[in-house]
Design goal:
It catalyses: prephenate + H(+) = 3-phenylpyruvate + CO2 + H2O. Its EC number is 4.2.1.51. InterPro entries: ACT-like_dom_sf, ACT_dom, Chor_mutase/pphenate_deHydtase, Preph_deHydtase. The protein has helices at 12-20, 34-42, 62-70, 105-110, 112-115, 129-138, 150-155, 204-214, 245-256; strands spanning 2-6, 27-31, 48-55, 59-60, 74-82, 86-88, 100-103, 122-125, 144-148, 160-162, 172-179, 191-198, 218-226, 234-241, 259-268. It has 281 residues and is an alpha/beta fold. The chain folds into 3 domains: 2-83 and 171-179, Periplasmic binding protein-like II (D-Maltodextrin-Binding Protein, domain 2, 3-Layer(aba) Sandwich), CATH 3.40.190; 86-162, D-Maltodextrin-Binding Protein, domain 2 (3-Layer(aba) Sandwich); 191-268, 2-Layer Sandwich (Alpha-Beta Plaits). Helix 8 (204-214) packs antiparallel against helix 9 (245-256). The longest helix has 12 residues, at 245-256. The radius of gyration is 21 Å and the shape is elongated. The model has no long low-confidence stretch (mean pLDDT 92).
C-alpha cells in the first residue's frame, strides 16, 4: 500500500501513517509540501495520503482545508497523535556542549520552557523535525542538537539526550487520511467533514446549526474560511458525528435550504480521540 506523507521518514506524519495503517504493508512516500502531496493523491499516484489538519495548541491548518477543496480530495479517516519532543544529539554529547538547536519553528516554540533554561543555545529553524536529526548526523555537528520524535532518533540511530521536553504534555495533532474520490469507501461512516457556504442573509448559519440539533447531529468542529474571489464572504468547514446515518442525511437536506453550497469532503469512521484526563494513548 503506497501512502504519501508530508515531510521525511521519522516525522510525525510518518507516526500518524504507521498508527492508522497498523498491520498493513506500507510503502511510505515522502513529499516536500502539502500541495505536492495533494496533487499526487488527486492523480491516483498513491493509495492514500496523510495530512495534518489541526493541533491543540496551534489550531487549524487552514491551507490544508483549501487544498482538500481545490483538489477535490476525499477524507476517509482520521488519527490523533500526541506530539512528544526530544532533544537528540551525537553519542557522548552533553547539554553543556550544545550551542545550537535545529528543528521546525513550531517544535522550537512548543519546547520554549525547556529551551529558555539554556540561553547559550542558538535556536535555528529547519524545515522538518526529523530532517534536522539527519542534518546534525550527516554534518557531524557534535556541538548541535535536534528536536524531533523518538522515531526520528531510532531511524537515524541517534541517542536521545532529553526526553519529552515539550512544554504542554497535552499537545495532540489530528491527521486526516485522504484519498482520490475514484477509490471506494472502506469504512462504515460515523463522521463527516463538510464545507458549507450559507446564503448571504441574516440568520442562515443559525438555521444550519438548528437543523443539525434537530436531527441529533453533534458538531465536533466549525471553522470559517474566506471564499477566494469573494471579499468578506466565508465558508464553514464543519465536522459532525451521528448515531443514525439517516438522520445525518436528513440534516443535509435541511441545511441545503439555507446554503448556497455543500461539499462533503468525506464520510468516515471516527478516530480514537485523546483522553486528556489520562494523558496520551
Amino acid at each position: 500500500m503506497e501512502v504519501g506523507i508530508q515531510g521525511v521518514l521519522g516525522s510525525f506524519h510518518d507516526q500518524a501513517a504507521s498508527k492508522y495503517f497498523n498491520g498493513h504493508d506500507l510503502d511510505l512516500k515522502p513529499f516536500s509540501s502539502f500541495r505536492s502531496l495533494a496533487k499526487a493523491i488527486q492523480a491516483k499516484e498513491l493509495d492514500y495520503g496523510v495530512m495534518a489538519i489541526e493541533n491543540t495548541i496551534a489550531g487549524s491548518i487552514l491551507p490544508n482545508y483549501a487544498l482538500i477543496s481545490e483538489f477535490d480530495l476525499e477524507v476517509t479517516g482520521e488519527v490523533y497523535i500526541r506530539i512528544e519532543m526530544n532533544l537528540i544529539a551525537h553519542a557522548g554529547v552533553k547539554l553543556e556542549d550544545i550551542n545550537q538547536v535545529f528543528s521546525h519553528p513550531m517544535a522550537l516554540l512548543q519546547c520554549s520552557d525547556f529551551l529558555t533554561q539554556y540561553p547559550n543555545m542558538k535556536l535555528t529553524e529547519y524545515e522538518d523535525t526529523a530532517d534536522s536529526v539527519r542534518l546534525i548526523k550527516e554534518s557531524n555537528m557534535t556541538n548541535a542538537a535536534a528536536i524531533a520524535s523518538k522515531k526520528a532518533a531510532q531511524l537515524f540511530d541517534m541517542p536521545i539526550l532529553e526526553e519529552n521536553i515539550e512544554t504542554n504534555k497535552q499537545n495532540y495533532t489530528r491527521f486526516l487520511i485522504i484519498k482520490s474520490r475514484m477509490n471506494g469507501q472502506t469504512k462504515v461512516p460515523e463522521k463527516a467533514s463538510l464545507r458549507v457556504m450559507t446564503k448571504h442573509d441574516p440568520g442562515r448559519l443559525s438555521d444550519v446549526l438548528v437543523a443539525f440539533k434537530e436531527h441529533n447531529i453533534n458538531l465536533t468542529k466549525i471553522q470559517s474560511m474566506p471564499v477566494l474571489g469573494q471579499p468578506y464572504r466565508y465558508a464553514f468547514n464543519i465536522d459532525v458525528t451521528w448515531e443514525d446515518y439517516d438522520e445525518y442525511q436528513q440534516s443535509l437536506k435541511e441545511i441545503a435550504k439555507s446554503s448556497e453550497l455543500i461539499e462533503i469532503h468525506g464520510e468516515y469512521e471516527k478516530g480514537l480521540m485523546p483522553d486528556y484526563d489520562k494523558g496520551s494513548r
